[in-house]
Amino acid sequence: MTAFEETVDRLGTAIRLGLLPPGTRLPAERELCTKLGIARSTLRQALTALTQSGHLHAVRGRGGGTFVVEVLPPSKPPSEEVLRSWRDSCDQRITIEIGVAVLAARRAPPETIASLRRLVDALDETVNDFEAYRQLDVRLHVELAEATGNPRLLAAMTEIQGVMTDLIRLIAHPAEVLTSSNQGHRRVLGAIARGDEAAAAAAMLEHLRGTEHILGWLLPGD
């Protein structure tokens, strides 16, 4: 994947997952280039592509800039390849997220733990609204990756959350399932707050296996 393609994918995934919500003004080009580790020419090409695809729009003049559109274009359904390789995606997720949980237990500062607890509490209030739940769910897992202080893990987490969101949207989401999932979040966060790396890894594995089990039963054609 070229730097241009990777940039389009990273920014597009952040928009699609709600990490860059509708109406968000993107940071200045210099800041984005530094954060993404790319040249300005590559960033401009990616922004042009995302504007042409209907994900961004530019506003000129005072108070202008590049903004996420208020209404995103419809998402394409997952390809047959994505559906066929869903177990590989789950394996990749487990590898990334267990490592993140271990490092978060070692490195997460108290203010990050407090922020994560607020997200878990908010998730309890959205178990009857899957789209709202999923956006908060993604934020929780991405904030865990941020707590490691490792930009490569953060990028990997964002990417795998995009893949999993495409898959998870294909199955039913009764409130009971989302409630159970958030209980898993609480166990993971409890272990991280205690600094217990082994317990954090075990709780994260249990949480992710639950999602994998449900996908195995409910994905179409599996």
How would you describe what is shown here?
There is one protein chain. The model has no long low-confidence stretch (mean pLDDT 90). The protein is mainly alpha-helical and 222 residues long. The protein contains ten helices and two strands, in the order αααββααααααα. The chain has two domains: 3-68, Arc Repressor Mutant, subunit A, CATH 1.10.10.10; 80-218, Four Helix Bundle (Hemerythrin (Met), subunit A), CATH 1.20.120.530. The protein has a two-stranded antiparallel ribbon with strand order 1-2.
Strand order of the largest sheet: 1-2
Q: Structural class of the secondary elements?
A: mainly alpha
Overall average residue pLDDT: 90
Name of the CATH homologous superfamily of the largest domain: GntR ligand-binding domain-like
Shape, per Cα inertia axes: globular
Percentage of residues in DSSP E strands: under 5%
| CATH topology term of the largest domain | Four Helix Bundle (Hemerythrin (Met), subunit A)
What is the end-to-end distance? 29 Å
CATH class of the largest domain: Mainly Alpha
Whole-angstrom Rg: 18 Å
Number of helices: 10
> What is the helix/strand order?
HHHEEHHHHHHH
Proportion of helical residues: 55-70%
CATH architecture of the largest domain: Up-down Bundle
Number of strands: 2
Low-confidence stretches: none
